[in-house]
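Justification of resources, computational component.

The compute hours requested in this renewal are based largely on the per-chain cost of generating structure records like the one below. Each record pairs the submitted sequence with a full structure-token output. That output is archived, and it is also reused by downstream analysis tasks.
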Amino acid sequence: MNTDPARIPVIIGVGQFNDRENIHDALGLMVAALEKADEDAGGGWIGQLDSIAVVNQISFPKLGNCAEHLAQHFGIVPKIVEQTPHPTGESPVQLLNEAANRIGAGEISVAAILGAEALRTAAERARAATGEKKDALRAVATGGAKSLMQQHGLVAPTDLYPLYENATRAAWGQSLAEAQAESGQIWAGMSAVAAANENAWIRKPQTAEAITSIEADNRPIAFPYQKRMVANSSVNQGAGFIVTSLARARAAGVAEANIIHVGMGAAAHETHNMLKRDQYVQPAGMVVTIQETLKRNRLTTADLDHVELYSCFPCVPKMARRILGWPVDKPITAFGGLTFGGGPIGNYMSHAIASMVDTLRAERGTALLFANGGYATHFHGIVLSADPLPEATFPHDYDVNPLADAMRGAVPSADDDYEGPANIESYTVFYNRDGTVKFGTVIARTSADARVLARVDAADETMVAFLTDGKVEPVGASGRTARGEDGLIHWRAG
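The structure output for this chain reads:
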């Protein structure tokens, strides 16, 4: 454990900024967030920064390294000026853990962690220039040659997370109605948190029924998800926080009630290729990240007063809360979730950390923050507390992926050309903006237990209904694959 106050990391300032007028680019939002964090910490900290770390962004790619721009803007020369390679959801937590490690090692004394997305501004400027609506997230995901997964509609997060949703529902023995009810209950709870949070993007509470019902303003996107069940990236939001040592904070006169202690973290990951994962029910990386974050801080679930469980799509917090043993009726967010609080791509957890600091200052206690990135690919957890964490030791190695590797089962081989008997492992159905069916996608297991990716045509109304009406559970259902006139492998029950 760290006993030297100069080696104990704490958060002393947080800042969040929403631009509803579509004025700022991503850099402008970061500047505003850092100024707010500095003010929250008592002022004068920007000039003392010896580290600026930024979560990468997609809304204004021509900005390049925003950490360098921030240093230039404020006229400072920190020792560390860095930006993450990619804008993934776990990035803010990883950067916090890195800052805590560096403070614990005596390498730095004051660090700022920031991020922002201005996708609304980017879309408005693109529309003004070209008259076309720009989907920046999908554009990033579809770069390069069109893969087999992309041919089957598996491109962006919205397309891929339903595979986990449908697989987990079947594994947990839930009916479609029961699974949707759980999603609705969790999402309604998040909307209530967002409604009470002045920094949230959507501050209108929603009922569980409104979230799960298909309406004109709640169109289906990818089964079983509707618009109000997915991350809302159409925002202009920036957030950041300032981390320093306990000694530095006290020397500067920061009130003890405003000092939030940083605990130890843990991180693991899955392979990026969804078709090369062992299963779609309980990612080993998620399990060990949550378990080891608690273990390293000598905590149990019963010791937690607050949690932030990443909420890009319902399957993620549903899996996480089962691993944690967190009741469905207890809040899972301090910010409001990615649908209602706002989903600024990789920087959501900066908002969650900032809001959790506010919560801990007001209510005290201890919190677990669990972050997810990619397609249930990257996981990072950390603990924050209003009180000292005696077990916390910095620097520490937060990589627990070897434990995840030991937990994983065998990965099925792939058979891209298979025709014959095949049982559904998971699936989804994609919809057009007008609510009509685009097509369905099935991941199936062959008679030799290999994986095959297959399509269900929109015109095959019987099969679409089979996948979506909830009368029977499609996962595990037997059928056959055959190559269609479009050159793709197709699946049909029977």
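The domain at 420-493 is CATH 2.40.50.840 (OB fold (Dihydrolipoamide Acetyltransferase, E2P)). The mean pLDDT is 96.
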